[in-house]
Specification:
Layout: H1 2-17, E1 21-32, H2 56-72, E2 78-84, H3 87-95, E3 104-107, E4 118-124, E5 129-134, E6 145-150, E7 156-163, H4 171-191, E8 196-202, H5 210-215, E9 228-229, E10 241-243, E11 246-248, E12 251-256, E13 263-271, E14 278-279, E15 288-289, E16 293-294, E17 297-298, E18 308-318
Parallel strand pairs: 1-2, 7-8
Antiparallel strand pairs: 1-18, 2-4, 3-4, 5-6, 6-7, 8-12, 9-12, 10-11, 13-18, 14-15, 16-17
Length: about 325
């Protein structure tokens, strides 16, 4: 832990020097619950007496695992997270780990699915000031979180976080989620015409499937107005999710130019995949993501998804 803290302190001047470059990350962290039972939510499985025997100790271990990954990514300026139960887990992450030395703030979900989890935003207020944030009304569980802010040099950015309905549901719900995203992007372009928009999320579908290719209009990763699905930039061996012997990319980032035509430049985009995020299970062949749970068995790993990491240059947009 002391070594990680030292690395964090070294990172501060390096990050601050790049005033117009923002690093962003997205990660579905897999069930980061507060073990306290909320009678209004179906969160009983993640309580001490529930199916996963979720305790304060396990929550702290999960918090420290998330911190380890955020630190290993170089402490991005903005981190979008999925499967967060309210404010308490975020408070633990931002104040109960060395992240507190870097002044991270957070936006917790207030509109959640039946289990009480949703998307959340963790960000360094010294690097990005949030001017407005909201959760657009949605008929679907896990609505979007939208945050619009500006850097210290005045460059603006809108961030939209999504966690679309599970693949256990038929495609119709994800098609609906894609239409809602289109509407929100159109709204942002009207209300913030000079602002670049970045969408990050677990969309629960591949780039070639209808919600992304047809409804979002990102055939081959591009759209006539300059919108770009960054997944197309990944090497063919980089995926974010592993399930039953099959690797797929369900987590995506999409960059939309502002209504006036400016588009932030992409300095880097990758699936973050250090060796410590992988393991080999004795009952399964090959390397897999080191999960917190395997079924209901506690493994003490990180998540069932790998994070995405993105670096944007907002100072020198393309036109």
């Amino acid at each position: 832990m002391k070594i990680i803290v030292a690395i964090l302190l070294l990172l501060v001047p390096l990050t601050a020097a790049a005033q117009d470059t923002l690093t962003l990350a997205w990660w579905n962290v897999e069930n980061y619950f507060d073990p306290t039972d909320d009678p209004s939510k179906a969160d009983d499985d993640f309580t001490p007496s529930g199916a996963y025997h979720w305790t304060r100790h396990k929550m702290a271990a999960k918090r420290d695992s998330i911190f380890k990954v955020v630190a290993a990514m170089g402490c991005p300026d903005v981190v979008g997270l999925a499967e967060i139960e309210g404010a308490e887990p975020l408070r633990e992450l931002c104040l109960g780990t060395p992240l507190r030395k870097l002044g991270y703030s957070y936006l917790a979900p207030t509109l959640t699915d039946r289990r009480g989890i949703g998307c959340a935003l963790v960000y360094r207020a010294s690097r990005l000031a949030i001017d407005t944030a909201y959760e657009p009304p949605s008929p679907l569980p896990r609505p979007m979180i939208v945050a619009v802010g500006h850097t210290t040099s005045g460059n603006s950015l809108a961030i939209v976080l999504c966690h679309w309905p599970s693949r256990r549901n038929d495609d119709s719900l994800r098609l609906q989620a894609a239409k809602l995203l289109n509407a929100e992007v159109d709204n942002l372009r009207c209300t913030h015409p000079a602002t670049t928009i970045v969408v990050m999320g677990d969309l629960n579908c591949e780039a070639t499937e209808r919600p992304i290719a047809d409804i979002l209009g990102l055939h081959n990763g591009q759209r006539a107005d300059g919108a770009e699905l960054l997944t197309q930039r990944l090497p063919s061996d980089q995926h974010s999710y592993y399930y039953r012997g099959y690797w797929s990319t369900l987590d995506h980032a999409i960059l939309y130019p502002s209504a006036n035509g400016n588009k932030a430049q992409i300095a880097d985009y990758q699936v973050f995949r250090p060796s410590f995020l992988f393991t080999e299970y004795p009952t399964r062949a090959g390397r897999q993501i080191f999960r917190t749970h395997y079924g209901r068995k506690y493994r003490g790993g990180f998540s069932d998804h790998l994070p995405l990491r993105l670096t944007l240059d907002l100072a020198n947009p393309k036109q």
